Amino acid sequence: ETGVTQSPTHLIKTRGQQVTLRCSSQSGHNTVSWYQQALGQGPQFIFQYYREEENGRGNFPPRFSGLQFPNYSSELNVNALELDDSALYLCASSLSGRLPSTDTQYFGPGTRLTVL
Amino acid sequence: AQSVTQPDIHITVSEGASLELRCNYSYGATPYLFWYVQSPGQGLQLLLKYFSGDTLVQGIKGFEAEFKRSQSSFNLRKPSVHWSDAAEYFCAVAPRGSGGSNYKLTFGKGTLLTVNP
Q1: B111 to each of A15, A104, B35, B78, how far by Cα in Å?
Q2: In what helix (H) or strand (E) does residue B95 lie, and over which residues does it extend?
Q3: Is the dihedral of CA B110, A5, A87, A98 positive or negative?
Q4: pLDDT tens for residues B30-88?
Q5: Is A96 within 8 Å of B101 when comparing Cβ atoms?
Q6: Cβ B107 vs Cβ B91: under 8 Å
Q7: A27: alpha, beta or left, given left = phi > 0 and alpha = psi -120 to 50?
Q8: Which of these, A10, A24, A42, A64, has the minimum number of CB atoms within 10 Å of its CB?
Q9: Contact A78, A87 (CB under 8 A)
Q10: With an 8 Å Cβ cutoff, are B43 and A44 in contact?
Q11: Smallest Cβ distance to B109: which of A35, A42, A45?
């Protein structure tokens, strides 16, 4: 039990639609990262937020966007869904932000998105 | 660009047998190194991590890993596997100097472990 929760657990959308996935971090965790895990693959880094500002982005198009809120919750939004967006989406939260530390990233159970 | 290779897609061992899962990385400088485990329907759980210091790292659930700079490897080991260890295991790296917990992880494709009774 990491204290990181995600909702919904499963979601089915059709191509072209928009989707919002939610993550609730552990209290006090200022950093949240989002990862996409396609079937049979390892997770791929999408982006990271620190104190409500984007703090790095992976190789994902702008239709993937995020928000982080002061209450330690965050969202991943995906516009114009494509079939290849079908994946498990994981969020991970951690205590520290920009300064080096050895704090652990704690992962949530993920949201399984299916795009038809 | 950094990459992580887990050469074994699927490994089957008998309960009580020893286990070694391989991980090789390609990187300009020694990165931070991690092993995660993922059970069906679960998120990723950190088993252990290497930032610096002793190259033999102890983790949870009786796992250990050894960093070998000369081989760019970070193999995961367990002396005696339990049926509950059946899961998928991921090796991951993050660039050194990028910060601690705000690092951006690059994962391998994973090794699925099956444990026979």
Answers
A1: 31, 22, 11, 15
A2: none
A3: negative
A4: 888 999 999 987 789 999 999 888 999 999 999 999 999 999 999 999 999 999 999 99
A5: yes
A6: yes
A7: beta
A8: A10
A9: no
A10: no
A11: A42
